[in-house]
Write a structure and sequence with these properties.
- This protein is α+β, with helices and mostly antiparallel strands.
- The chain has 18 helices and 17 strands.
- The chain folds into 3 domains: 133 residues, no CATH class; 142 residues, no CATH class; 196 residues, no CATH class.
- Strands 7, 8, 9, 10, 11, 12, 13, 14, 16 and 17 form a 10-stranded antiparallel β-sheet that branches.
- Helix 4 packs antiparallel against helix 5 and helix 9 packs antiparallel against helix 10.
Length: 541
């Protein structure tokens, strides 16, 4: 099981090598189409400010010292990001420092007038962690909603996890998945368009709606509208598969890569079509008769033009000086901050025993595909094991390389290998040496055609957990990232993280006739195996 993949994000960085926040931001949003809308946000913010130019000209400069609070918070976030060498705190720092400067130098009236433009600026920052964490729960929900719609219109359908399949029909002699089989991968879950649609809904609400409650309703509804668009997309794919076949509607799988058909690409436009239609319909329901006048109010303001007055020039000058000196002082603090990373030794030994209880092992080398995917310096050891009872397992220990985020969640790569993840749970395991760890258990499956035409389901369990340099263990991907940041800031130590993975294949069975006791027995065998195996490579306590 390939459990590592390079994480090309804003905080992709090598040990001891630092890059600017803007460099990471520009690299990310330029490379990935799902986030390229971020490039438009600064231009839209400038346009929003220009729309209020006449109102801003009439506002006096009446700064308040309360602006030091958001500015101080922003500068603190900047220092945290500088110390931990990650971009996300710096994104937050830009927002807070900008708000602090507006309040400190210009005043509350300016902040109220520019409030929406300031909030809209948040869409500039690509929030990749949200993409990963929100996509997983959206996938099974999208599949379940599509299954409900298909059953409602008379097409028997079942969903399991993110998989959507035709239900067996005895009168037609069809088995599960004979008519269609779809898996709602991350790009069909609604998340790849969700953030762009949220930005559009915020801008549309500001321009077309007047009341804050109406704007909030429209913004919140962008999430279900994105999911609804993807449900329609799935319905189109099912209809295309039933009418013209899977190759026409979905495309062909070439190895680990799914080649999308033109119809699949066309169905993808349904996401934006449904969502945008829903947004305009919702705007009309909320303030339909007032929309025209609402749009007109954003035209250049009328009335006498004025120039911003400065009622208290000395205080304004001192506030302006504070707005300039505080960031300079923070830069000086950063210059004096120790950012020399002391990369700790790994907390694992890259060696697995060939004999463990009644299990006999055999070394299994890294594949050529894994060598091409993995970052430079990533090391891997893997053994397959067979017991006298016939139980088979595969144990893998992966050591991170030069890139600090060389490891990622198996949930990201398993769908690309053809597996469907049905659920994820935490499993406590007591080791033989007295330590207790918590691992993440994934239940996965994929279906295939049997020799007699029956649909066979290959199921498997995958246990994994992360191991830090000091022996710390955690089951979650983001937990190990947070521990990395915490220790880099307060202990000046960079963990050399490892990830252990235990893969347990289950016997193939006819779809719909799976025996749940087989899975329970495999899980107990896996826990007993990990209890003996983990102390052999987890060297630090």
């Amino acid at each position: 099981m390939g459990n590592t993949l390079r994480d090309e994000s804003c905080q992709q960085w090598e040990f001891g090598q630092r890059h600017s926040v803007l460099h990471g931001w520009a690299k990310w949003v330029s490379k990935y189409a799902d986030w390229q809308f971020c490039l438009l946000v600064p231009l839209l913010v400038g346009w929003l400010v220009w729309l209020r130019r006449e109102e801003l000209r009439r506002l006096p400069w009446q700064g308040t010292w309360l602006g030091l609070l958001p500015m101080g918070a922003g500068l603190f976030f900047y220092w945290l990001g500088y110390k931990a060498d990650t971009g996300y705190p710096a994104f937050l720092a830009v927002q807070f420092v900008l708000a602090g400067m507006i309040l400190l130098v210009l005043g509350r009236a300016w902040m109220r007038t520019l409030g929406f433009a300031w909030l809209f600026l948040f869409f500039t920052w690509p929030m990749q962690p949200l993409e990963d964490s929100v996509a997983s729960p959206l996938r099974p929900r999208t599949a379940a909603m599509a299954a409900s719609m298909l059953n409602l219109i008379g097409q028997p359908t079942i969903s399991e996890g993110s998989a959507l399949q035709s239900a067996p029909e005895a009168e037609k002699g069809t088995q599960t998945g004979d008519l269609f089989r779809l898996d709602v991968d991350a790009k069909c879950s609604g998340i790849n368009s969700l953030f762009a649609l949220m930005m559009i809904s915020a801008l549309l609400g500001y321009l077309a709606l007047k009341h804050p409650r109406s704007r909030l309703i429209l913004f919140v509804c962008s999430v279900p509208l994105a999911v609804a668009g993807n449900v329609v997309r799935l319905l189109l794919l099912v209809a295309g598969t039933l009418a013209f076949g899977s190759d026409f509607a979905v495309g062909q799988r070439m190895g680990d890569h799914q080649e999308m058909s033109p119809f699949h690409t066309f169905a993808g436009f349904a996401v934006f079509g449904v969502a945008l239609a829903g947004m305009f319909a919702l705007c009309w329901l909320l303030e339909g008769r007032e929309m025209k006048s609402n749009l007109k109010r954003h035209a250049a303001g009328s009335g006498a033009r004025g120039v911003s007055a400065i009622p208290l020039p000395r205080r304004t000058l001192s506030q302006l000086a504070a707005a300039l000196l505080l960031p300079l002082a923070t830069l000086g603090l950063c210059a004096g901050t120790d950012i020399s990373f002391h990369v700790a030794e790994p907390g694992v030994a890259l060696k697995l025993p060939l004999s463990l209880g009644d299990y006999q092992g055999r070394e299994f080398d890294m594949t050529a595909q894994e060598k091409n995917i993995l970052d430079e310096g990533v090391k891997l050891v893997r053994n397959t094991y067979s017991s006298t009872t016939g139980r088979q397992l595969m144990a893998t220990v992966i050591l991170s390389g030069r890139v600090k985020r060389s490891l990622h969640r198996p949930e990201v790569c398993l769908p690309g290998q053809g597996w469907t993840v049905t659920d994820s749970t935490h499993v406590p395991i007591l080791l033989e040496d007295g330590r207790e760890i918590t691992a993440t258990l994934l239940r996965i499956f994929h279906d295939k055609e049997g020799p007699n035409g029956a649909r066979l389901r290959a199921r498997a369990l995958n246990l994994y957990w992360y191991v830090g340099s000091d022996g710390t263990t955690c089951p979650e991907h983001y937990e190990h990232i947070l521990l990395t940041y915490f220790d880099s800031i307060f202990r000046n130590i960079q963990h050399r993280w490892s990830m252990a993975s235990i893969y347990i294949p289950l016997a193939e069975q006819i779809v719909g006739q799976e025996d749940p006791l087989i899975e329970l027995g495999a899980l107990e065998d896996a826990r007993a195996f990990v209890s003996k195996l983990a102390p052999t490579f987890m060297t630090k306590r």
